[in-house]
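task queued by scheduler; priority normal; single chain, no ligands, no partner chains; default sampling; output format set to structure tokens
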Amino acid sequence: MQYALLIYSEESSTDAERAGTLEEYAKLTGDLRSANKFLAGEELHPTGTATTVQVRNGDALVSDGPFAETKEALGGFYLIEADSLDEAIEWASRIPAAGSGTVEIRPVLHDPEHGG
């Protein structure tokens, strides 16, 4: 089964903290690849670069910034293959941001009728 590991953390970190964390992410990504569990993963630009779209009464309402103002923001994701939720939890617990933020695990819904 495929799982999305959605990584939420505070955006305010120093360059030194970020550099150390990037090494941890590189190791995790390498381990996922070695285990043939890695499908995709990316870091996202800060929420200040986000654009939000809502359609109301047929009109697109576009605004700058994230949908919600929160302390933790979606900063990236992994898409993995795991044999069980327990295995997905094991991988999620290795994500560096899990120590100070939150990792949300979501099973990917595959709909064969619509190409998924």
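post-processing summary
- The CA atoms of residues 32 and 38 lie 5 Å apart.
- The mean pLDDT is 90.
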